[in-house]
């Protein structure tokens, strides 16, 4: 497998960054973020993992020494309980708005930059097959405008044995590729693109890729948990999936419960003043709740609709009218990579 092509943070400019994303589907920026800012967040997350018994008790939490008896993955109840505590961290959401990341993403997206409000934390146990992230495209889970970007940020050095990402160069040029309808996984035997690239990604680096870029994770064969973040960005004037602003997987989650112990108000509902363009719109969601064939999706659309009406003032949203529902892309039906 070929090594990542990389850019030093001191040499990033808009034209270069856009060219890399356009031609390769990704850009690896080295030494973008200060180590002390990363370590601050890592310590908070590691303490939660330690308190929940995910780490060995005879080592410092920041060492991330995994207790394999606690191994679990995103679909497990134990994972979901712990993940909620991590997601509620004010420091996690602040990190997604880090000035260094924001500056780089503005170079790529432009002045109307939106940070998606639900950053995802990947907590990957070693030697746990259920935790391995297989080849997929983020757009299938994220929806909205295809011109959306993910910044993958490891919170510690991530050499080969810890399972860094692999990216299929040029795969974003083939649109949505055939994937398993339940998991979103794309068979590596059928995937289209040029060649797979990978390599060590260290704390402070940022791997940025297009929502249609096919990527996967190498297996974690170490003795430590791998901890990383997915932060997503796009132009806020483009269409957005409303599911990314609420919690369609649960009736018990809300932004108010997330914000309950925050000190600052600066990032609470930071998107509410923006003229967002949801697709499906409020009217379309209302129709989908009553007409979609799948009961699971009716429940999901219903949760999205009720949570949006409860948590977001409708006068902040621009309704998008682009023809009949039958001609529209529905909300993603395999939210396996959404986190919450």
TrEMBL record:
This is Ectoine hydroxylase-related dioxygenase (Phytanoyl-CoA dioxygenase family). InterPro entries: Phytyl_CoA_dOase-like. GO terms for molecular function: 2-oxoglutarate-dependent dioxygenase activity; iron ion binding. Keywords: Dioxygenase, Oxidoreductase. Pfam families: PhyH (PF05721). Its cofactor is Fe(2+).
